[in-house]
Every structure is written in C-alpha cells, then in structure tokens.
Write a structure and sequence with these properties.
about 160 residues, alpha+beta, Immunoglobulin-like, 5-stranded mixed β-sheet, 2 helices, binds copper (II) ion
Length: about 160
C-alpha cells in the first residue's frame, strides 16, 4: 500500500474506533435502552450544576441537573419501583423548610423571589415510592437587587406642531 493510502486507512480505522469509543461512553452517560428490562442497573445518580450566573444576578435561581440510571417522570407507587429502566422524581427543599415539593420533569429547577443572601437548595433523588436514593445540596447566594431606577418625573415640552 502506498504510504498516503496507508495513512488514510489508519486514520479511518482510528476514526471508527474513536466513534465506537465515543458511542460507548455517550451510551454510558445516556439512558439504558428501554426495549428490554435490565437485569441489574447501577445505582441512580443525581448530578447538579451551579445556578446559571446571568439569571442569578437578577435574582432568578436556575438549577440544571441530570440523572444517570434513572428517568425523572411523574410516575408513583410501589409497582413502579421495580420498573426498568428505573423511574423517579426529585424532592426539592429550600433552606430546611418544613415542606418539600416534588419536581417530576427533567427541566431545570427554577426559583424566583428568594431573599438576597445565602440559600441551601436540597435536591433529593426519590424512587416512585418516595424513598430517597441520593441527594445533592446546591448553595446559592442571591445578590442584593438594586432597586429599579425611579423614573424621573420630567415634563417634556408639549409638541408645538
Ligand atoms: Cu416523592
């Protein structure tokens, strides 16, 4: 094989190998195939990200998250616990508040109206029977909001037209 062709062949083989390796790692991160029940699934994981900086500067807390080995869905009850792939939802608690709400989609958690200062947002991964599987605490510091500039009370000159 002439040298350039061999290089191309090696590059092509490398590309195929890399694509296969990438597909493998992407598949590991993504959800398992839903077509067959999995005999054993690794433990469910919740991964949270720091609040988005831009909205936080305006006092809007947006917490993105993702899960591994569990799908967030509004499905409840003991019969759903053993479903494969695993299902669940997230319990959200703000500042050790006595109440918790259930977040049942993979959309980000969005909080508006928190007082300026430090807050503790607890996100807990729960199975369909509400058993807590794992939890992550996101610490959020809501900045002091500048009061909106009072509009000056200027009297314009009336149109002379
Ligand atoms: Cu629950």
């Amino acid at each position: 094989m002439p040298l350039p062709l061999r290089h191309i062949a090696v590059a092509a083989a490398g590309a195929i190998f890399c694509a296969a390796a990438w597909a493998q790692s992407a598949a590991d991160i993504a959800r398992p195939a839903a077509v067959i029940p999995l005999e054993s699934e690794p433990a469910a994981k919740l991964i949270t990200y720091p609040p988005l900086a831009g909205p936080l500067a305006r006092g809007v807390v947006i917490i993105q998250f993702r899960t591994e080995n569990l799908r967030i869905m509004p499905v409840f009850g003991s019969a759903a616990v053993d479903v494969s792939p695993h299902l669940g939802h997230i319990h959200v608690t703000v500042d050790d508040w006595h109440g918790t709400w259930a977040h049942t989609s993979e959309d980000p958690v969005i909080l508006v109206g928190l007082e300026p200062g430090k807050h503790k947002i607890l996100l807990e991964l729960a199975d369909p029977s509400h058993k807590i599987l794992s939890g992550e605490t996101v610490i959020v510091t809501v900045p002091e909001q500048k009061a909106p500039k009072a509009k000056s009370h200027e009297h314009g000159q009336p149109d002379q037209g």
